[in-house]
Amino acid sequence: MFADRAKIYIRSGKGGDGHASFRRELYVPNGGPDGGDGGRGGDVIFEVDKGLNTLIDFRHKRKFTAQDGEPGNKRRCHGKDAKDIILKVPEGTVIREAETNKVIADMSGENTRQVILKGGRGGLGNMHFATATMQVPKYAQPGKPSQELWVTLELKVIADVGLVGFPNVGKSTFLSRVTNAQPKIANYHFTTLNPNLGVVDLDGGGFVLADIPGLIEGASAGVGLGHEFLRHIERTKMLIHVVDAAGSEGRDPVDDVYKINEEIKAYNEEIAKRPQVIAANKVDLIYSEEEDPVLRIKEEFEPQGIKVFPISGVSGEGIRELLYYVSDTLKALDVEPIIFEQEYFPEEELIQAELPFSVAREDDLFVVEGPKIEKMLGYTNLDSEKGFAFFQRFLKEAGILEQLEAAGIQEGDTVKIYGFQFEYYR
To answer: ∠ at Cα 176 (175, 181), nearest 5°?
Structure first.
């Protein structure tokens, strides 16, 4: 089964907590702090695997979590760093943040490995907090929290040229003749249900050709499998539009070109502006002597700058000329590979999301609440001068003091943060 889209949950590892302990040895009274640091949590890394061409592995497992770092221990023992989790994806996979649909990474070109979520840093043990005035620190720093995201994975095939056209017009037959691809071919609609890639070898160069599954009217609005197919032409530099010139199934080839182009334009106007050539296929089935359907197609589209080549996917007629024309056009374009730029930066977005807090006035009290603040109170020793200074610095850096001043707090007013109260002074 071909799979080109998946939604998964990823989480990096939490940093290990620092340890609070004191040296205890025979004949060594009042030993100093010796709590070790916690280990680093594991990163979530995406890596390109050239041997993959589908996202099927992500259809059966949807949650991926890196290991947490080990906590520190006594005798200054450092907790073990956790292993990273590496997720293998096909080249051309675009990773997006699920809620906003913004691009996090495009696993294409030179970008073959990228850290998407960083593991939490390990917390410091209490041996780091000893000072001349605080020689017995009874607290240690917890590890930094993990990061988590729901992301969507989209595989957009990497090809220079896309074959487009209605179902059963001969695209698969054409692809099998000009490349080493072996698509499934039969005389019924929607034979091709997944993109087929092939390499066209020519003297002086070649190009990658993708058979995009048959489009239908309404594809741009998601009718049928429209969006599933259309995303695969986003990276192509040029399109070969295959039509049934003989009208063997009663279709009008001129009308078909206009309809498919309208679907492409509705999906993405930029793609519709890319160079296009028409392959008027199945000329071996034209028996009418009264009207030349190929001439009609040429008279309609060549004045618009769209070259028309009569071909036969069965006999091979006209294919050589078409391929060399496409190759020459690609060389003249000299277009850089299409890479989707990063729009969402997890490190920045998630750090900002970690600091929600509220400031409210209740009678004579200014009440401050928030999960980050509650966690900070859990590991800060406010009875010590160093611990209280550390907490004050946190309130300033998080913008809480600024919010209190905006709420009208005056010197001497009381601030309540969960079970802790103190008077406010600048």
So the answer is: 90
